[in-house]
Amino acid sequence: MTSRGVDSPWLFLLRSLFPNWRFYHAPGDSPRLYFRYLDAGLWSDWQQMMPRFKRRLFNLLFNPGVNLALTEQNLVDHLANDIADCQGGNDVSALVVYQMVERLVRQIIAAEGGHIKQFQFRVCLVPSGAAFDMEAGTILLSPCLDY
Amino acid sequence: MDPILTLAARSTELLCAFSLCLQTVEFFWLREPLSERGIWAFSVQKGGLAHASSWVQQLFAILSKDSVHILHLCLRLIAVLCLGVYGASLWLVLFLFLGNVAILIRWRGAFNGGSDFMTMVVLTGLLIATILGAFNKQELGWRAGLIYIAIHVTSSYFIAGWVKVLNQDWRQGKALALFLDGGVFGPLANNSLYWRRWVALLCTWSFILWECVVPIVFLDPRLAAGYCAIGVIFHFLVFWYFGLNRFVFAWMATYPAVIYLAVALA
After folding, report:
1. pTM over 0.90
2. B243 and A128: CB-CB below 8 Å?
3. pLDDT tens digits along B123-147
4. What's the rounded Cα separation, in Å, for the pair B40 and B60?
């Protein structure tokens, strides 16, 4: 398990003890998760995992849905970092974070219903506020996986 | 103990207890993602502990069992209530500190980023206070703990402000709209005010300047109180626009330490 700039697995797991206050420091390219699935012999279009919520004042005190969605997006961010660190032939699919993202996609697809046989996901770097070419922006394309 | 110090210590305990209480209730709600069916299933997560010794792996295998996790959260809730009602004691704070580390490791190091960091800072401050208190240095302990918290919170604002000053997109007011557009409450409507350059510039530079001038809190306790009052509004807006509710209470728990240090320096 690695993450950009943190070589020790323990340092990564204990990073809450070493605060980083660089919040939202630069827009840049955002890692985004896309998925598609094979349903009734047809592949769906690629869909972006982009949870959106409505604002509610009550969520000031209790906000598990949004917090979980933000944590899931963090997994995608970590996977993107680890893909960059893995260049040189290492097997990305062996990473814990890859397996977690695969589970995340399975969970999203489960909510779609239907008779899904297979699925596939990709991680793309999407530029903020600029045109996006999915093929050029892809940093990871999973094989077609049985559902 | 000095009454100002007592007030700051008690306020920190109460605000920290409130913040931890909200976090714990959310963790109760979020047990499914940590279960074997969930994304954070221990059968997957344990691969990230392959480097650890066998007893550490066994410890986390036990902690990650559903029943143990629920028991931990129940004990944590009781500990948090005790912190609020009776105040900090060494074993109580040690349990909350180590328990929080264990929960965050279970979430792969962090659950909510900055609010996790600041919660650990406050718990570390309380730990410093109670460890020294156990050696009959209660006053020194609280002074050291509160100063530790105050230094971290002022650093947090100062660094967060300066990294934005150094970025061209922030300086030009473009970054705010881009982050809002990609956020959990996005996308921004095409006619949103935040796409207008002067609105974005005004908003951006208001909070960048507010963050960067944080050292002024140590010039006068009234400045510190005013800064913290604006801080509550700032964090509420961050919640409103980015959904980061935990940040509001994690940072509020540090404000008594900031005001205490300002009073002490005055």
Report:
1. yes
2. no
3. 999 999 999 999 999 999 999 999 9
4. 13
